[in-house]
Fold Circadian clock-controlled protein.
Amino acid sequence: MIETFLAASYIHVCGRRDPNINQCILDNVNNMKDKLCMGIPELSVPAFEPVIIDKLVVADTPNTKFYLKNVVINGLCDFDVKSLQSDLKKNHFKVDLILNHIIINATYDIDARIVIPINQKGDAFVKTDDVRAIANMDLTITSKNGKRYVYMSQMKINLDLKTYDIQLNVDERERSELSRIVGIFIGSNQKDIIAVVKPLLEEVISKRILLIANEIVKHFTYEELFPDRT
C-alpha cells in the first residue's frame, strides 16, 4: 500500500541533493491538493476540510457579547503557493501562500446594548478573500528499529486578514433595527474583531495541518521521503 502511494503519478520523491528540491516539494503539494482536501483513505488521512470549532468569542464586554458557535470553516483547500523554501539541514520549511476564499458558516449569538438592547440568535455566513498566509514548519527526526522517521513538531501560520463580509440571518420583525446596529458594530470594529479572531483561526488551522502532515509522514522513513540523491 505504501509503495503504491509513493509510486502514484502525483507523487515524486525528492532527493535531498536535488538542486531544485523546493520546486519538487511544491509540485507534490500542488499535485496532492485535491487528495488532501478529500482525504487519503489508503493512509487513513482525514479530509483537510471542513475545520470545525465549537465556539469563537468575537466580543465579550459588559455591553457587547458576540459569539459564533458550531463554526464550520471551508475553503482552506483553495490556495495558491507563491513560494516554498526548504532547509533540510535545519529541517525547516517556509511557505508563502494565498488562501483564495475562507468561508465560515456558524450560529451567532449576540447580546448587545449599543443603541438599544439586542438579544438575537441565528445563522451567520462569513467570507474573506485573498488572505495571504506565511507558514513556518519544523520537522524532527526520530529513530525506530534502526530507521529514521520524521514528524512535524511545530507549525506556525500567520494570516494577513484585512477585511471580511458577514451576513446574519435575523428575525424579520427585528431585521431593520438589528441589521443597522450590527452593521454599525461590525463595520466600525473590523480591526478589533480581526485581532481577536485571527489567532484563534491560526491555531486551529495549524493544528489541522499538523494532524494531516503527521498522518502522512508516519508511514514513511526519512530515506523514503528524502533519499540521499539528486
Residues 68 and 108 are 4 Å apart (CA to CA). The chain has one domain: 20-225. Residues 20-225 form a domain with the Bactericidal permeability-increasing protein; domain 1 fold (CATH 3.15.10.30). The helical segments are 2-6, 21-38, 175-188, 190-217, 222-225.
